[in-house]
Design brief:
The chain has about 350 residues and is an alpha+beta fold. Helix content is about 30%, strand content about 25%. The protein has eleven helices and 17 strands. A hairpin with an 8-residue loop joins β4 and β5.
């Protein structure tokens, strides 16, 4: 693969509550691609309203969102079933075709990382970086993914789930049923939301009610998990382009949050959290983490990349799966690129490997 001859299109923004993080991640990746001198680097920004806009202005306008007002912005038209990979732009009466070899959807959360964008790219017969529809949708849905991980013997914290309509039909019964399976403290999460959005920790019936009400503002399903006292460990997974499509699992990294748990503000706003890369672990724990990361990725039919997150339970030393993230953050402080750099894949080599995987 000659990356200098590739026609690449980066997708950024999106309709999720991680729109701003997508802009930061995309800026990081665009700067790397520019340094690699690709033949064509097109950019499509997706507004919070879901409008697809072609953009060819300065990268510096992307992080704060001011790119949307730049004079270069044009409407984007996609044609399902078109023989060539790419998209049209429309400005006034002028319709132009942009041929693309590979799309790079740097999108986080709903309507971007959950299989919807992957399905759209499949419909327009295009190749793209990252997981396909199945893996993206399963990994995003914390109910579906936990059921699947249970089915293949990947250990997790004790958990249960609840539908919004059942909760509001009889809140007392819902709480009673939850407490038959879990004891306080309990983590409550929207089933489909990324970056710890809408996640709270409940220590009483009153707090549990409030936590569920918050979770249901983001999704129609909530996942409830037994709180784990322990360490938060993450690894990066990269699918290689060798004959067997082997998986490279990075060195492990540890997150030490600056508050009770690693929420959205702790990840992206506060600078008090610490990332330790690499972290030294007993050989047995490390082997389990690598095995579970690979098994989770293969079980959901992953492609390209993911970040796999785990807990190490303090009282037992058990390795417990938290989740995999199929398009992890690529900001300057994000774990995935830091872990890969420590594992022999600095930014340019990593991006080239992701593009190669998409084109295989």
């Amino acid at each position: 693969m000659d990356i200098n001859k590739l026609k690449i299109c980066v997708l950024f923004g999106g309709q999720s509550n991680e729109h701003e993080i997508s802009r930061q991640s995309a800026t990081y990746i665009i700067d790397i691609l520019k340094s690699m001198k690709t033949e064509v680097l097109d950019l499509i920004g997706i507004t919070k309203l879901g409008e697809f806009k072609f953009y060819s202005g300065p990268t510096e306008l992307i992080p704060d969102g001011s790119w949307e007002n730049h004079e270069s912005v044009k409407d984007v038209l996609l044609k399902p079933g078109h023989q060539g990979q790419g998209f049209f732009t429309l400005q006034g009466q002028e319709l132009d075709w942009h041929a693309i070899d590979v799309f790079f959807p740097v999108l986080h959360g709903k309507m971007g990382e959950d299989g919807t964008m992957q399905g759209l790219l499949d419909v327009i017969n295009s190749q793209y970086v990252g997981c396909g529809v199945l893996a993206s949708s399963i990994a995003m849905d914390k109910v579906a993914s936990r059921m699947i991980y249970d089915s293949v013997g990947i250990p997790q914290a004790n958990w249960t789930w609840l539908k919004k309509r059942k909760f509001f039909a009889d809140q007392d019964l819902a709480i009673k049923n939850i407490l038959k399976k879990l004891t306080y403290p309990i983590f409550v999460k929207p089933a489909n939301a990324g970056s710890s959005v809408g996640i709270t920790k409940a220590g009483s019936d009153e707090e549990l009610l409030e936590s569920l009400e918050l979770a249901f503002e983001y999704d129609t399903k909530a996942v409830l998990e037994q709180a784990i006292v322990g360490r938060e460990i993450e690894v990066a997974v990269l699918e290689l382009t060798d004959r067997n499509r082997n998986l490279l699992v990075s060195v492990p990294g540890e997150i030490i949050p600056d508050r009770e748990f690693y929420d959205y503000e702790s990840k992206y706003i506060s600078d008090g959290s610490k990332l330790i890369i690499p972290v030294q672990l007993p050989e047995e724990q490390l082997e389990q983490i690598v095995d579970f990361a690979k098994r989770a990725f293969r079980t959901v039919d992953g492609q390209g990349l993911c970040r796999a997150d785990f807990f190490l339970e303090e009282s037992t030393g058990k390795v417990l799966m938290n989740e995999i993230n199929t398009m992890p953050g690529f900001t300057g402080i994000s774990m995935y690129p830091k872990l890969m750099a420590e594992s022999g894949y600095p930014s340019s080599k990593l991006i080239e490997a992701l593009l190669a995987s998409a084109l295989e």
